[in-house]
Amino acid sequence: MAINYTWKEEYNTGVKFIDEQHKYFLNIVKDLKEYIENGVCMDSASKIFFSLVHYAEHYLIQEEIYFKDYQFPSTSEHKELHAAFIQRVIQFKTDYEKDIIHTCQTMQEYLVDWFENHILKYDKEAIEYLKGKGL
């Protein structure tokens, strides 16, 4: 995986709440990586699921509120992506409860992809739109 697990200046959007959200998510991915490397993922996965639920409940919803308030043209598409993310996390939890092999690794790959493609690309473009509208 090509992700750098340390926050970089280039990841900043200039919107404090959004940057905090993205840092929080990167820390989840970093924790998961460490659990996998230390062979304790199956014992520690509940911490990851709790963190992901917190992320979804606090950050994704606030982001959607910003999009609605500032009339972001792709709000419904963005909400669909968030809903798909939440469904995928639920599936990971189900797989984990069924002791499906490689759940942790599959989840890590998915979360890294979310960080690289949703957060660093899609969200960053959306934030630029919001900043142009006064956020």
Concise structural overview:
This protein has 135 residues and is mainly α. The chain is built from 4 helices and no strands.
Describe what this molecule looks like in 3D.
There is one protein chain. The protein is mainly alpha-helical and 135 residues long. The protein contains four helices and no strands. The longest helix is centred in the C-terminal third of the chain and has 30 residues, at 103-132. The chain is globular and about 45 Å long. The model has no long low-confidence stretch (mean pLDDT 90).
Q: How is this fold's topology laid out?
A:
Elements: H1 16-37, H2 41-69, H3 75-97, H4 103-132
Helix pairs in contact: 1-2, 1-4, 2-3, 3-4
Strand count, sense and barrel status of the largest sheet are: none
DSSP helix fraction: over 70%
Distance between the termini: 33 Å
| Shape assignment | globular
List low-confidence stretches: none
Mean pLDDT: 90
Secondary-structure element order, N to C: HHHH
Radius of gyration: 15 Å
Number of helices: 4
Oligomer: single chain
Notable traits:
mainly alpha; 135 residues; 4 helices
